Every structure is written in structure tokens, then in C-alpha cells.
Amino acid sequence: MSHFAHAAPSERVRESTHGRTPPTVRGSIRVGWAAYRRVISYTFQFGAVFAAFDTLLLGAWLTVRLTAMSVLVGLAIAVVCAYARMNGPRWAGFVVRCYVELIRNTPLLVQLFFVFFALPLVGVRFTPDEAALLTMATNLGAYASEILRAGVEAVPRSQIEAGEALGLRPVQIFRFIIFRPALQTVFPALASQFVLLLLGSAVVSAVSAEELTSAANVLQSRTFRAFEVYAVVLVMYLVMATLFRLAFRIAYQALFERGRSAR
Amino acid sequence: MRPFGQTELFFIIAALRWTVALSVGALVIGGIAGMLVAVARVQPGRLLRWVTIGFIELFQDTPLLLQLFVAFFGLGIIGINVDAWTAAMIALSLHTAAFLGEIWRGSLEAIPGTQWEAARALSLSWMQTLRLVIMPQAVRISVAPTVGFLVQLIKGTSVTALIGYLEVTRAGQLVSNVTLQPFAVYSVVAGLYVLLCWPLSFASQRLEARLAVSTRRTDPRAA
After folding, report:
1. What is the value of ipTM here, to two decimals?
2. What's the CATH number where B204 sits?
3. Average of pLDDT values for B85-107?
4. Closest by Cβ to B194, choosing from A106, A118, A156
5. Where do the DSSP E strands lie in B163-204?
6. Which of residues 132-171 of A touch B (CB under 8 A)?
């Protein structure tokens, strides 16, 4: 049965080309056909992957935890930076700008190598997990502070002036007038930045921090089923990213839309 | 152990050409594919639209590193003798196609529907409308985010170091291993990336500010 299934398409190709097609087309058909034969003759063994699926699930959980912690720390950095750029002294704004530009124009992987390999030379030593958390939090802090700043700038000038007229101090204006609407404006942008961080966290496997891609690397070297392992893990990331997006949409509704309809 | 001297420094700087080659190659191939993706995304046929949505989602919601691994090990199954360069090129091109396709789709859809109607009233075909009316306007909107994505792409090429492709980051790793001076080495590597990316980031911001003036409908600050 399967023999006929193999033979049929090639027969059809021979019929339809009828010897009139230029050799390049026929050649590429032959190459494609050979590739197709190789794929169907390769035995995919996902069994080995699913037998150790619990290690991958644990890895996925560690990735989620690492990302969530980085988001919390990174957001704190971002709020401080956005505030410093708005109300702080000039030198503070300059420092924040340098930090943001430096982080945004270098790859996460290089930042990770710097934290993990270079900082011990000046006396600060980290475990892989700490290095991963520190790198991801600093990375997110820079991007999120830029996003927050855009939100802060979108708050109407008159609102801030109204706050000043009521005698509020700059911190109070930031806290009571600017922060919430600014956060609401940029929440979708922040959410996609969080998802990017989740996906970017795969590179921290380069220093063997414990997360999903590291778990995949270990499983790959144990089973020698590289393609199967990474294909499954790819799908796991896809599911996690989708769930993250869903969670942020729910969070947005809970934070901003419910309050509004009640008012 | 070797000192971190001129030879080592030059080794890293020379590897910059592979970072650039990878970025430019992925930009060209991914750009052409991305254009097709964007057009497929706005054309009326439903099946093709769903396929491209799936393609974009798959590449935007999975890590570049895993895309690279799957390309690297998946091509081996087909029997093509994969080196790191081919795998990196394929993964980065597809990655670029998905992101640029999404950016350009957004730009195409940002053009008001009345433009389509006006072109139809002039009896332009769908393709003519897209080519002569919509695209010239969409280009203006898309320039800034496209340049912004280029920065993301250049930084993304660093991940290919993890499948052993010799570009700046990998060169840094190697030099750091023989000189045991990671602080100096990774500072240089980071500096090279800044040199490459910062002008583009700057250009993107300037372009955004300048082109926004003509497309902005209302001043966001006016309450």
C-alpha cells in the first residue's frame, strides 16, 4: 500500500512534464522528491521525548518563574528610571539615557556573558540562575522605562498643571495623576515586551541557567533526538507565549476596564 | 594564556563582517519573503490569509534560538549537509520575513479604506491599487519600524554563536577563553554592537518623529 503511495506522485510528475520542461525545473523536482523520500524514511521518535516530558515541564515552569521575577524587578527599575528622567536632576537623566541606549543596542547574550564571565573579575560572582535573573531584569528595565516614558509623555499637560495648581508635590503628581493613565496607555506595549523577554530567556541556557532550553539541551544529549526535542520545546514556547498574552489581556481588563464601567 | 593584544582585537573586529553579512543576507531574503507575507495578509482570499497568520504567529511567539536549533537539526533529516551558516541564514530569514511581514501589513492596513474605494472608482485593479496607491503611502509609515527591526535583527545574529557560527559574539567567546580577560573582551564586543546598532536606533527615532508629523491626526497632548 505504502509502496503505491510513494510511486504515485513521481508518476504524475513524469506525466505532466512530458519531457518538455526545462531541465532546471525537472532537476529541482527531483531534488525535492529526494528530500521528501528522506523525510518519510526517517523514523521520528517522539516517544523518547515524551518519556522525559516531566523534565521539560519542570523546565517550562522554571522559565515562567524566571521571567516573572525578571518582570517584577525590571518594572521596578523602569519606574525609577522613568521618574528620574522626568523629575530627577539632569545628571540622573543622563545616566538613565546611557543605561537605556547601552542595553537596547547590545544583544541579551552579550549582556549575559558580561554579567556571568566578566563581573567575577571585579569581585561579584553569580550562579547561572542569578546571572540570568540579573541580566533579564536589567534588560527589561531599559526597554520598559522607554515604554513607560512614552506613556508619561502622553498624559495631557493640563492634568499635570491641574495637579500643580492643587499644590501636589512632584512625587504625588507622578503617583496619583500620571502613573495610572500612563500605565494604561502603554500596557499592550509592555505586555509584548514581557513576551519578548520570555522568548529571549532561551539564550540564558548558554550559561546553563535552569530553564526550558537548558532542560532541552540535557534531554537532547541524553536521547540524541535533537530535532524531536527542539521541535517539541518550540511548541511549548508557543503555548507559553500564547498563555502569557492571554493572561495580560485578562490583567488589562481587571486593572483598567472594570473600574471604568463601575464608575 | 595569551595577552589581549592587537591580534586578538583584530580577530574580533574581523568577525564583525560575518555579523554584517548575516544581517544583510537575512534582510534581503527575509525582506522579499516579508513583502509576500504582507501582501498575502491583506489580500482578500481567506485560506492564504490564515496560512500567513499562522506563519507569523509561529515565528513571533517562539524563541529565535529554538528556531535556529530546529533549522540546524531539521535540515539534517532532509539530508542536506548543514553548516552553521546555512542554518543561521534560513532561520534568520524566516524570522525576518515574519516580523517584517507583520510590520508592513500594519502599514498597509493603516492606509484609510477610502483610498481603496477611490482607486476602485478609477477602475484600478486590486494589484494596481496596491502598487500605485497604497504602497507608496505605506512606505512612509513603515520606514521607522523597519529600521528599528534592523537593530533587533543585528542583535539577533548573536544567538548564532550558540550553534557555533563565528560572528562577533562567538569570536568574543573564543578570545575570552584564550586570554582569560572576559571584562575587556566583552566590553569590546558590546562596543562593536553599539557602534553598529546605535546609529540605526537613532535614525529610527528621528524618522519616527519626522514622519509622524505628516500622519498625526491630533496632538496627543492636547486635552
Report:
1. 0.89
2. 1.10.3720.10
3. 95
4. A106
5. none
6. 153-154, 156-159
